[in-house]
Write a structure and sequence with these properties.
Residues 22-247 form the Thioesterase domain. With 250 residues, this protein is of the alpha/beta class. It has a single domain, classed as 3-Layer(aba) Sandwich (Rossmann fold), CATH 3.40.50.1820. The chain has helices at residues 39-42, 69-83, 97-109, 142-152, 158-161, 166-182, 208-212, 233-236, 238-246; strands at 5-7, 11-14, 21-26, 47-52, 90-95, 117-123, 195-200, 222-227. Strands 1-2-4-3-5-6-7-8 form an 8-stranded mixed beta sheet, with helices on both faces. Helix 2 packs across helix 3. The longest helix has 17 residues, at 166-182. The radius of gyration is 17 Å and the shape is globular. The two termini are 28 Å apart. The relative contact order is 0.15.
Length: 250
C-alpha cells in the first residue's frame, strides 16, 4: 500500500500511520523543507517526519518571507492547528535558525491544548539572547551574508555564487538573516519539556558552551550530543543523528 504524502501549505512529509510521535523539523536560514527530504526513509517507523516549509522559497517563492520571529512562530503554530489536525504528540527539531523558530513554536504549543509537545531538539545554535546580552544587530548586507554562508558551509557555498540561482536563493536568505538580526526576546521562557541539544565538533560559529546555554530554558534536563563535523554535520551524520533522536525518551 502506498503511503500518502503530507503536503499542506506549511508542512511536507510522508504519513506514518503507526508512528507514536511526529518529528516536526525546522530548516536553517535560507533553507527549505527539502533539507529533510531523506529523513522519512531513514527514520524508524515509530517516528513520522514532517518538515516546515517557510514562505518565500521553493514552491512558496512568490509569498513574502516572514519579517519577524514572532510572525513566523505565530503562523506556524496556527498552521499546526488547522493543517495537522490529529492529536499525535509532537517533538520539534530545529537546525541553526530553525532552533530559534522551534523554541518559539514550543513556547506557543505549551499554551495550545490541540497538540501535546514531548521534547525540543535544537542543533547548531545558542539559546536566544536577550536584549541586555546582545543588542539587535544591523541587517547584514548581501556580501556579509554570503561571507557568513561561506564560513558555515564551505562545501555548499558555490551554489550561492551561481548567477542564475542567486535571484531564487538570495531573497529568502536575506530575509532570514534580517529576521535573526532583529530577534531578541524580552525574557527566556522556561519550557515544561526536556531539551536535547546537538552540534558539530568543528562548528565555527556554535561552540560547546553555546550548545550548553540551552539549559537556561528548561528545568527538565538537558541532553547534549556532539557529532563529528562542522555546522552542517547533519548532512553527513543523518543516520547517526536520527538514531540518537529516536533513542530519546518520549
Amino acid at each position: 500500500m502506498t503511503v500518502p504524502d503530507i503536503r499542506t501549505l506549511w508542512f511536507r512529509g510522508k504519513s506514518a500511520p503507526t508512528a507514536r510521535v511526529r518529528l516536526l523539523c525546522f530548516p536553517h536560514a535560507g533553507g527549505a523543507a527539502g533539507a529533510f527530504h531523506d529523513w522519512a526513509a531513514l527514520a524508524p517507523p515509530e517516528i513520522e517526519v514532517v518538515a516546515v516549509q517557510y514562505p518565500g522559497r521553493q514552491d512558496r517563492f512568490h509569498e513574502p518571507c516572514a519579517s519577524t520571529m514572532e510572525e513566523l512562530a505565530d503562523t506556524i503554530t496556527t498552521a499546526l492547528r488547522w493543517e495537522l489536525t490529529d492529536d499525535r504528540p509532537l517533538a520539534l527539531f530545529g537546525h541553526s535558525m530553525g532552533s530559534s523558530v522551534a523554541y518559539e513554536v514550543a513556547r506557543r504549543l505549551e499554551e495550545d491544548p490541540s497538540h501535546t509537545l514531548t521534547r525540543l531538539i535544537v542543533s547548531g545554535r545558542h539559546r536566544p539572547r536577550l536584549p541586555e546580552e546582545q543588542a539587535p544587530r544591523p541587517v547584514p548586507t548581501d556580501p556579509e551574508v554570503l561571507d557568513y554562508v561561506r564560513l558555515l558551509d564551505p562545501e555548499g557555498a558555490d551554489l550561492y555564487e551561481h548567477p542564475e540561482l542567486q535571484p531564487l536563493i538570495m531573497p529568502a536568505l536575506r530575509a532570514d538573516f534580517g529576521l535573526l538580526a532583529r530577534y531578541r526576546p524580552t525574557h527566556l521562557h522556561q519550557l515544561g519539556v526536556p531539551v536535547t541539544v546537538c552540534g558539530g565538533d568543528r562548528d565555527p560559529v556554535c561552540t560547546i558552551e553555546d550548545l550548553k546555554s540551552w539549559s537556561d530554558v528548561t528545568p527538565k534536563g538537558l541532553d547534549l550530543r556532539v557529532f563529528e563535523g562542522g555546522h552542517f554535520y547533519l548532512r553527513q551524520r543523518q543516520e547517526e543523528l536520527l538514531a540518537f533522536i529516536a533513542a530519546q525518551p518520549a
